[in-house]
Specification:
266 residues, Rossmann fold, alpha/beta, 2 domains, seven-stranded mixed β-sheet, 12 strands, globular
């Protein structure tokens, strides 16, 4: 029971939006109470389970805004791909991708609570995922990660500071190409990036990797407001990908909120 934008518009027009929201919220709360310890996410013919000890985690999985993008990515992945999930959160993309590829998924998540839940989801699904608790950017060192919500699974944590944060934590950052070389990791053939405004730094740090012909897919969520706050733009990220030989298309995730995926394919 996930109502569409058309239903919401009609409800608002005829004055029963509050009633609809109440009914939807009640149904979702009941679904959470009945769900038990896990919630199964199915995208196409790929399915995996996620632990849901908190209502916040359940609601994020209940309505996945980027489901069409996720479906497109899973449809493009091949068994021989090496998939990197940069900004992995609790492992939605990583765990699903691990059901498709024969090689280990490489995941990067610097927030310690989200990384721990990702680890638990990995173990629950016996997923072949290597997790690194670093922000993968274009330099080594420490950085302050701005926190949007003090809840496990919350998205929006960023190295770009805005007025919406609830404080910061110190995290480790690593240069992408150098980290891959230092740890003798397999080079990625497919990459997903969701890093809340530091997309440019991620791509800069992976310049040599992205230039390789074998790196054939990049799904990069771009956050226009945070890119602008850091002196970058969506057009600039597109130009970076095109400079590495990718044909780039755009797919809007949340219309009106500035969240879009740039999908690069070779």
């Amino acid at each position: 029971m996930i109502y569409s934008d058309i239903v919401v518009q009609m409800a608002s027009r005829f004055g029963f939006r509050k009633t609809l929201d109440y009914a939807y919220g009640s149904y979702r709360s009941l679904s959470y109470r009945l769900a038990g310890d896990t919630y199964a996410v199915t995208v196409g013919d790929v399915s995996t389970e996620f632990l849901i000890p908190t209502y916040n985690e359940f609601t994020d999985l209940w309505k996945i805004d980027e489901r069409p993008v996720l479906a497109d990515l899973l449809g493009e992945l091949r068994p021989d791909d090496v998939f990197y999930d940069i900004g992995a959160n609790i492992g939605l993309y990583a765990c699903l991708a691990s059901q498709v590829t024969d090689n280990p998924v490489i995941a990067f998540e610097p927030h310690p609570d989200n990384a721990e839940r990702l680890r638990q989801n990995m173990q629950h699904n016996r997923a072949d995922i290597s997790l690194f608790e670093h922000a993968l950017v274009d330099e080594d060192g420490k950085a302050e990660l701005s926190i949007t919500l003090e809840k496990v699974g919350s998205a929006g944590h960023s190295l770009v500071t805005t007025a919406k944060e609830h404080g910061t934590i110190t995290i480790s950052k690593r240069h992408g190409d150098e980290f891959i070389a230092d740890n003798q990791l397999p080079a990625p053939t497919a990459i997903k990036v969701d890093v809340e405004g530091t997309e440019g730094a991620v791509l800069n740090g992976l310049s040599a990797t992205l230039n390789q012909p074998s790196c054939r897919l990049v799904y990069c969520e771009v956050h226009e407001d945070r890119l602008q706050a850091s002196g970058h733009s969506v057009a600039g990220i597109r130009s970076q990908l095109e400079g590495h030989g990718f044909a780039v298309t755009e797919r809007v995730v949340r219309d009106g909120k500035g969240d879009t995926f740039l999908i690069g394919k070779k």
